[in-house]
Amino acid sequence: MAFRTFWRSEKLLVGVILVCFLGSCLFSVYSLSQSDHTLDQVVGPFALPKVDLKKRLALHRTTLPKVFPNHNKNIKEKNEEKRPIFVPHVGLVVDSQQQKQDQNIEQHDTIEADSKQGFVPRVGLDSLQVDSNGKADTPAAFREEDFAPPNYNLHVFYYPWYGNPEQNGKYLHWNHNLIPHWNKQEAKKWPTGRHEPPDDVGANFYPSLGAYSSSDPAVIEHHMQQMRYAGIGVFAVSWYPPEQADNEGQPSDSLIPALMDAAQKYSLKVAFHIEPYEGRTDWSLQHSVRYIVDTYGAHPAFYRHTRNGKSLPLFYIYDSYNLPSKDWRNLLSPTGSHTIRNTAYDGIFLGLLVEQKHRNEIIQGGFDGFYTYFATNGFTYGSSFTNWKTLKQFANQNKIMFIPSIGPGYVDTRVRPWNGRNTRKRLNGKYYNDAFQAAFDTSPEIISVTSFNEWHEGTQVEMAVPKRVGNYTYSDYTPNSPEFYLQLTRNWSEKFKNLQ
Ligand SMILES: *[C@@H]1O[C@H](CO)[C@@H](O)[C@H](O)[C@H]1NC(C)=O
Ligand SMILES: *[C@@H]1O[C@H](CO)[C@@H](O)[C@H](O)[C@H]1NC(C)=O
């Protein structure tokens, strides 16, 4: 999601300004028509229906597979229902399916036997097949014995914005458009159009789970397993208010209950990464926080971090610099005009630090700390490892938190073909290891990983498989296995625990 602000075209900006202007006109009329202003009405565009959380949670719970050992089977059965398998002779369908199942059982037994000797990294996953539709077969599920203890100071940015026809009626995000260069002359030099999933996705790597849907319960379950395998404790889910989404996606707030239930099942915690949704202001943010805390705050998987003796929800606020610090101050300073401090909705609010000058804006805005998001070392002041020690000192002096964001690499040329200079090669894990080390050198309280699954920017640690389609060969993790970046994360997660 990087660069959204940087590369936004002028046209879009004008559009947004117009929409905001019209929106505020309409809204003023609306406000005037209300005699009695409550907070909810003042932030009218985001007025929310009362959500019966229990009902929603119950609904989702019934759709989640319940037991680990059967999980693989569940996914298989489901896929066989959904995906037509092209085989010329009907008789062979049964045979080959039977064969596949037999192989699976065998493999499962072998790993079970091995794991009794201690932790064995899962190696069976290289048996991944690409079926006759060109989709990757669903990888084997992890088992409980494979999991590492969750480290709640290790966070990862999670995107619930992917969709496919089976679950969502159409592809979402995998069919990403090729973003034109902001300079019209330059834009002419580059291809345009959209990717065509399932084989051609808007990413330089290809996911082990194929062109998946974020709302598929089997996918959610597998993601939780991957995170636990990696020793991650918290995932910060990219969040828009209900009814809102990014350009390529659909509203995803309705997925939160399923994500939280799954998180709970795997002892993971959920934090919120508040996107710069349309109309985001200090007022609407207050409303968003109230909504999130009221709707999800009672869920056992809702993440709270203890700071200065208080256990508080933690919010990452993407592109926080879009709003002047005097506005943030109204909300985040204890003396602000509509302060959230020392109310039931108080939290740990983390601004995004991109440029050096944002340091002071973050202090003036009343934030509790800052993070750096971008996985491209040297791209911004904040994302440059060499500045991290200074940033940490600055944070200490001002008694706020510095949460470095690190990633395994960066490449977004499948959606921004002209952006090659920001590519950072993975170097078989060296880039990621160096980033972790740079973060460690600041003795951080929390480290955030960019990302679990931002596939468009190639920052994912999620499992990826080798794939070649037509004349395009995806990047992959070879000579290492599809779960290599989960393994590296796992190792650092443990080191991080010992450091603290
Ligand atoms: C790859 O294939 C596409 C369509 O088949 C074609 O338009 C494109 O020029 C090819 N690219 C290369 C580098 O051969
Ligand atoms: C993780 O650490 C173990 C033990 O130190 C080591 O054997 C293994 O190679 C490491 N894994 C990776 C992917 O570096």
TrEMBL record:
Highest taxon of source: Eukaryota
UniProt keyword list: Golgi apparatus, Hydrolase, Membrane, Signal-anchor, Transmembrane, Transmembrane helix
Subcellular localization(s) per the UniProt record: Golgi apparatus membrane
InterPro entries to which the protein is assigned, alphabetical: Glyco_Hydrolase_99
Membrane topology listed for this record: Single-pass type II membrane protein
Coiled coil: none
PROSITE patterns: PROKAR_LIPOPROTEIN (PS51257)
One of the record's GO cellular component terms: Golgi membrane
Family matches, as Pfam families: Glyco_hydro_99 (PF16317)
GO MF term set: alpha-mannosidase activity
TM ranges: 12-32
Family statement drawn from the similarity comment of this UniProt entry: Belongs to the glycosyl hydrolase 99 family.
Record protein name field: Glycoprotein endo-alpha-1,2-mannosidase-like
Organism name: Branchiostoma belcheri
Taxonomic lineage: Eukaryota, Metazoa, Chordata, Cephalochordata, Leptocardii
